[in-house]
Structures are given as structure tokens and as C-alpha cells.
Amino acid sequence: MKAPTKRLYLTRLQRLENEFQRYPKEIAYLHATWLEKHKHRFVSAWINQHMHLENTSTNRVESHHAKLNKYLHTSIQNFVNSWHTIHNLLELQICDIKSSFEESLTRIPHRYRGYLFRVLIGFVSIYAMQKIEMEIGESDSVGPYPDLCHHVSQTTCGLPCAHMIAEYRQENTPIPLSPFIRFGASLIVTLLYLTS
Ligand SMILES: [Zn+2]
Predict the structure, then answer these.
(1) For 67-125, what is each residue's pLDDT tens digit?
(2) d(CA 164, ligand 1 centre) in Å
(3) Is the pTM of this model over 0.70?
(4) If you measure from the C-alpha of residue 105 to the centroid of ligand 1, how many angstroms do you get, rounded to a whole number?
(5) Ligand 1 centroid to 182 CA: how many Å?
(6) How many CB atoms lie within 10 A of CB 109?
(7) 3-state secondary structure at position 35
(8) Is residue 91 within 8 Å of 98, Cβ to Cβ?
């Protein structure tokens, strides 16, 4: 599921088939029921070709649905009461989101004080900076070479990917806001933060 490229997916699938060759029926089932029809829905090599802001399952929707159900079941069931309950729940969530944004602007972890993050501070959420931090780690092995980079961060979240960060590091310049703007960043960074 986590294979970042189609080639790696095929290699891993081959390895799995070799390991379970004594179970041909199960392997056939896996192919016919899941992989042939649905691999593009859950294998990273396919889902990471689209912007999904890390929403690759229904977990978040299910979690919010469960929370709302819990609220509604503890109130008297009529329309007006239900409306007030939902309204209160949403107001609470907006409050949480606002305080998270405030925190993102005022409490900057020390490790983001370096030159790479200089331009981003105050404009990009801490959550987005954590994502960039992971790409910085990747940039050590990828270097400024697009061919060696999977561009996952850029494609799926609109954030700079490892090879772009390697270029900034090579030029000794901070990560600019322009890639964020080019990919509709204010919305993306907001969404990333809201859904984190
Ligand atoms: Zn890249």
C-alpha cells in the first residue's frame, strides 16, 4: 500500500506472490477483488498523484460523525434542540481552530528559527512546517535532482518537496512563499492545519 512508485509496487507485489505461492486462490482473490479494480484508491503510487491534503481515508469524517452522534444522543430529540446542539459543537470547533492559529503565529519552536524557515514564519502553520522539516531530511539523499524526487509533498499538499528544498539549501536562501502561493497555499496551509 505504501509503495511510492509503480515500479516499487510491482516489485513488492512480486515478493508477496513469491512468499505466498502456496496459496494461489488467495492471491487470485487479492488480484481480482482488490488490486485490479481498486489499487488506484489505496496504493500510494496512485493516490499520491493527486492533491489530497493527507485525507486518504474516511477516518476523519467517521470521527466527526461519531462526535456529532454523541452530542445529539445526549440531547432531547427535536429539530430546534438538535440545531442548537450542532451549532454549539461547530462554535467549539471554530474556537479550537482560532486558538490553534494563534499558537501557530506566536509559539514558534526554536528549530524553525534557522534561515530556511525565515520567510515562512507567521504565514505558514506549524503543522506545514513540520511537513517541510521531513522534506528537509529527505533532501539530504535526494539532492536538487527532480528525477530522484517523488514530489509527494508538492503533488499531494502543495508544499515544497525534497528536491526543491535541496535547491534552496544549495543556494543558501530561505524557502520562499512563492511555491505556497503558486499552489494556492493560503487555503492549502489552512486546510492542512484544520485537518491535523
Ligand atoms: Zn520534488
Answers:
(1) 777 767 665 567 777 788 788 888 888 888 777 777 777 788 889 888 999 988 877 87
(2) 6
(3) no
(4) 27
(5) 15
(6) 11
(7) helix
(8) no
